[in-house]
Design goal:
The protein contains two helices and no strands. The protein is an all-alpha fold. The radius of gyration is 23 Å and the shape is rod-shaped. The termini are far apart.
Length: 47
Amino acid sequence: MSHAPQTPPAHDTQDVVESIVPHMPVVLPVAGAVLIFLLAFIAVFMA
């Protein structure tokens, strides 16, 4: 009894984390700067 050949799935799934990792040297400082700006804006607005 022969089995049908196994074919790989048509779509190739890409991990979300692996797609983000090369951009981390840019994304992380920008996110930090935005967070610091928002915290300073809130502190000045509340004062």
